[in-house]
Amino acid sequence: MHCLGVNNVNTYSQGCYLGVLGGMGPMAGAAFALRLAALTPADVDQQHIPTLLRNDPRIPDRSSAYMAGGENPLPHMAEGVRFLERAGAQLIAIPCNTAHLWYDQIAASTRLPVLHIIQAVIEDLRRLGLPKGRIGLMGTAATLKLGLYQRHLEAQGYECIVPDDDEVERYCMGSIRAVKANRLEDAFAPAAECIARLKARGADAVVLGCTELPLAVPHALRPSLGITLTDSIDALARAAIAHYLDEQAQERVAA
Q1: CA-wise closest residue to 133 among 68, 202, 87
Q2: Strand 158-161 and strand 17-22: pairing?
Q3: Tens digit of pLDDT for each residue in 194-230?
Q4: For residue 68, which of 92, 98, 130, 146 sits 20 to 30 Å off, Cα-Cα?
Q5: Positive or negative CA dihedral for 31, 35, 36, 38?
Q6: What digits encode the pLDDT tens for the residues 93-150?
Q7: Is the peptide bond before 133 cis (omega within 30 degrees of 0)?
Q8: Are 99 and 106 in contact (CB under 8 A)?
Q9: How far apart, in Å, are the Cα atoms of 220 and each of 7, 216, 229?
Q10: Who's near 28: CB < 8 A, 6+ residues apart?
Q11: Cα–Cα distance between 58 and 69 in angstroms, integer?
Q12: What is the dihedral of CA 226, 229, 52, 100, to 10 degrees?
């Protein structure tokens, strides 16, 4: 696979792209593209990662599908991945945590590697100096109820602290819904309250485990919260960048 390297000038070729299955929600997909560019170690435009963003909000709601018998989003997500594959993507990123409840089926629908957002968050915890510890979790009701983060974190030696059902509804979902409705000014207070509660229960760090939550908690306000936060948008962007840097290193060795 060629022309994927960061820090070398990319030559034009269709088969260079990071494919991003967005729209879940649309602001999170757009924010992922922005943070990917912001975190890429590049000096000029041509050193950035060529990216195709399919920001399609028509994908049925993931939480409703699992929690309330809503329409199955898997066929729509799989079709989106195949669209990106046909368009020349060489790697897939999905900036939606709840979508990863269908990760195995999505990965089976394509020949391309698909990044896993929870594993990206675990790698980010290690980058932040937390190879183990007590991790507070925030996310959608479906993500938390179905243990998506818990099973991955606990398998790698972490202890999870999860809000109760009322806290998930009031603080996590309240914040997530505000972002989805473009009411960012209303999203910070409930998210900050949940973070404070998890910190009071002994969390060493808190996972913003829904891609709306990093938008609810702006980077500039995070130091005031007094606890390490790992951001699932940034973690996934860092994982994509690491993949491309790996490709670059392999190409240098092969040359």
Answers
A1: 202
A2: unpaired
A3: 999 999 999 999 999 999 999 999 999 999 999 999 9
A4: 92
A5: positive
A6: 999 999 999 999 999 999 999 999 999 999 999 999 999 999 999 999 999 999 999 9
A7: no
A8: yes
A9: 28, 11, 12
A10: 22, 95, 96, 179, 211, 212, 215, 233
A11: 17
A12: -150
